Amino acid sequence: RPDVIQPGYEPGTVVTDAVPQTTAPLGSPSEAEVEETLKRIQTHKGVIGTIVVNAEGIPIRTTLDNSTTVQYAGLLHQLTMKARSTVRDIDPQNDLTFLRIRSKKHEIMVAPDKEYLLIVIQNPSE
Amino acid sequence: MFTDETLDALGVESLWRKSQQFAQESRGCQTWPVHTAEAEIQLLLNADNGTQTDPQDHLLYQLPFKGEFRPESPGLRDFLHRVEDIVVKELANNAKSHAFDGFDVNWEDPNETVSCIHCLQHPSAQEKGLQVTSISWSCTGSVIACAFGRVDDGDWSTEKSCVCTWNLDRRGLNPKRPDTVIDVARPVMSLSFHPSQPSLIAGGLYSGEVVVWDTNRTQDLILAQTGMSTDTHREPVYQVAWVPGPRRGEMVVLSAGSGGRVLLWTVDSDEGRLVLSAGFALVRQQVPHNSALSKNRGSSNVGVTSLALSPWDLDTFLVGSESGLVLKCSFSAQTLAAAPPDGESVTLRAPAQFSFSPRGGPVHSLHCSPFHRNLFVSVGTDGLAHLHSLLQPDPLLSLRVSDSYVFGVRWSPTRPLLFAAATGQGLVQIFDLGRKSLRPAATLDQLTGGQPVYCLEFNPRRKDLLAVGNADGSVNIWHLSTELTEQGPRETAKLEQLANEVAE
Question: In this predicted complex, what is the ipTM?
Answer without folding.
Answer: 0.71
